[in-house]
Specification:
45% of the residues lie in helices and 18% in strands. The protein is an alpha/beta fold. The chain has two domains: 149 residues, D-Maltodextrin-Binding Protein, domain 2, CATH 3.40.190.170; 125 residues, D-Maltodextrin-Binding Protein, domain 2 (3-Layer(aba) Sandwich), CATH 3.40.190. Strands 1, 2, 3, 4, 5 and 11 form a six-stranded mixed β-sheet that branches. It has a six-stranded mixed β-sheet with strand order 8-7-9-6-10-12, with helices on both faces. Keywords: Receptor, Signal.
Length: 339
């Protein structure tokens, strides 16, 4: 009897957690009762100090304000409801309303997202912002509706550069024979090979010890990896080649989205865009603080780089991916026109 009771309680808890969108009266998200409050559950895998979490909290606050209390967002940080992949799967069936996911992780769902994993797609940060706020990206957001979700907005995660243990990477030739940890996407492997380096795929959590033991000679990410991941304790050179700018995307379940009224959808879209603007200065502050800490407390040297030779070495990649994925070519052409 105790075993049956335990199972029943567990199932009940799971149902309560996984209901992505509900109202205080137990009706659906699109209900029109005067006393209904639509509750949207948002889950992600970052801590509560991360700039993206702070932006998502502002997103939730804005939704409550704009809806005059008729909508609210409950946020579950720190992977409380699962990993990024697990949360996205729950979102697709309507179990969770919203989440934040790297654009690179969306490549299996829409070919166009491959564009964001390619090197030197954006000329600089301003070009990145202009491109991400273009009609072409808004159309891309809708391409995954039949896959169970759509995009609402983006948050910058900065530019990714190389950081290494004992020498800077100032030219592609500096990568010859150098083992660099890359994310597990084909485009990252292709990029490293085009630059002459040796790509090594491994979980992010293994990077620190792998740098220590020289299983790898370096990695690539933004400046916060030096401090948040403590990689600056081992890797003493950060080279600003800025090869990729891969945004985070805020997505919402198609089932939840379709259940909302036109007014509710407008509130979400307005709040999403405003949260993106809220996030930009937070990110700049986090980068400035990471650089200051890495220099002062870790002894990391930051190197400016002539990006020209790097761009030339990987230029053919954009053509190759454009031929393979028509959606990528369309986006790249659109971004190019915005330079």
């Amino acid at each position: 009897m105790k075993k049956i009771l335990s199972i029943g309680i567990t199932v009940s808890l799971l149902v309560m957690l996984l209901m992505g969108c509900s109202s205080d009266t137990g009706e659906t998200a699109g209900s029109k009762g005067a006393d209904d409050v639509v509750t949207l559950r948002l889950a992600h895998n970052l801590n509560e100090q991360h700039t993206v979490h702070l932006a998502l909290a502002e997103f939730g606050r804005l939704i409550g304000e704009k809806s005059e209390g008729n909508m609210k967002v409950e946020i579950y940080p720190n992977a409380q409801l699962g990993s990024e992949e697990q949360v996205l799967e729950q979102l697709q069936v309507g179990g969770i309303a919203m989440t934040k996911v790297s654009a690179a992780a969306l490549t299996p769902y829409a070919d166009g997202y491959n564009a964001f994993t390619l090197p030197y797609v954006f000329a600089d940060e301003d070009h990145f912002f202009t491109s991400m706020e273009s009609d072409a990206v808004k159309e891309l957001y809708q391409d995954t509706h039949d896959k169970g979700f759509i995009g609402l907005t983006y948050y910058t995660s900065g530019a990714r550069s190389f950081y290494t243990v004992d020498k800077p990477i100032l030219h592609p030739s500096d990568l010859r024979g150098v083992k660099i940890r890359v994310m597990g996407f084909q485009s990252q492997t292709d990029m490293m090979q085009a630059l002459g380096g040796t790509p090594v795929g491994m979980p992010y959590g293994d990077v620190y010890t792998s740098l220590q033991s020289r299983v790898i000679d370096g990695a690539e990410s933004n400046e916060t990896a030096l401090t948040n991941g403590k990689h600056g304790e081992v890797a003493k050179h950060f080279s600003y080649d800025e090869h990729t700018m891969i945004p985070d995307i805020v997505v919402i379940s198609s089932k939840v989205w379709d259940s909302l009224t036109a007014e509710q959808k407008a509130i979400l879209q307005e709040a999403a865009v405003e949260s993106t603007e809220y996030h930009k200065p937070l990110w700049n502050e986090a980068i400035a603080e990471a650089v200051k800490e890495a220099k002062k407390d870790m002894g990391v040297t930051f190197h400016e780089v002539d990006k020209g030779p790097f761009r030339e070495a990987v230029a053919s990649m954009l053509d190759e991916y454009g031929k393979k994925y028509p959606e990528v070519k369309s986006l790249l052409d659109s971004f190019k026109a915005l330079e």
